[in-house]
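Chapter summary example: a protein plus adenosine monophosphate.
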Amino acid sequence: MCIFCNIIEGKIGADKILESEKFLAFKDINPIAPIHILIIPKEHIESFNEVSAENMADITSFIKEVAKEVGVFEDGYRIITNINENGGQEVKHLHFHLLGGTKLSWPKLG
Ligand code: AMP
């Protein structure tokens, strides 16, 4: 079972921010911004490549709820999902990084 499935099952602890029937949001253990939340589907979906358009519609609404919950909705924030090897995806369970809490830089990558 993957690490995020273990978090969903409660076998590994996480600092939860928001939960719904289908999705979970919790703090990233190694934050790279003042606010760094991970948003995941409870269903094990490997990456963005495998997610359905219907699930994306639902997760979009959930992400906006999380942004409101942590107080960044109006000031701004960034959503990132890393995909496979070149995208730098370490955990093979679809997750969206929500970054905020400061004016984020836009680094040249690669
Ligand atoms: P990625 O590189 O896009 O696959 O991102 C994986 C993210 O998961 C990294 O930012 C890690 O810091 C984070 N992470 C890994 N294990 C945990 C955990 N147990 N709780 C919270 N965040 C985690």
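Key point: The radius of gyration is 13 Å.
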